[in-house]
Structures are given as C-alpha cells and as structure tokens.
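ok so I'm stuck.
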Amino acid sequence: MIDTIKIYTMINRFTYDKIRNKSIVKTSYSMESGEIFYNITNDHLKGSYDTSLSVRVGEGSKYNFVSMYYLEIEGSYHKIVKGYNSHNRLL
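replied:
not stuck anymore, here's the structure
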C-alpha cells in the first residue's frame, strides 16, 4: 500500500499569490542578523490523523522551475477515501 503521495506542478505568480495569501507561512531566521533561512508556505493540518490534503507553494527553484513557482499537493489516498491508512481493513 502506498501511504502518502506528493504531486507538484509549475504555477504562475498570480496563482502563487492567491494561494499564499490564504496560507500559513513558517519562517526560520536568525534573531541576531535578521537573515531568513527559509519560508514554508502551507495550509494547516490538524495532525497525522487528518484526512485533508497538504497544499504548499514556493519559489520554483526547488524543482528547477526557472523564474516560476510551484504548487505541491500531498496526502494519503486511503485517509481521504477510507478515513485511515494504517492497514487494509475490510468492511
């Protein structure tokens, strides 16, 4: 059984801005210098039991998309369809 899958695609700036403006942004930076190490833009998941999809956007360099942005969707088919993914229980 495949637990989690991740799908990504290239998106334009307009789509990136629309999704980013509705997301939670987590940033790692140095308090001393103010240098930003990274930003993670993601929708909020409640926990490992959550059946939602994770939606993330970012600068395209992660996937070698030059001058573009990416959309990354991650989730578990079994959690979405069956509500769990720990085993293949028959109902």
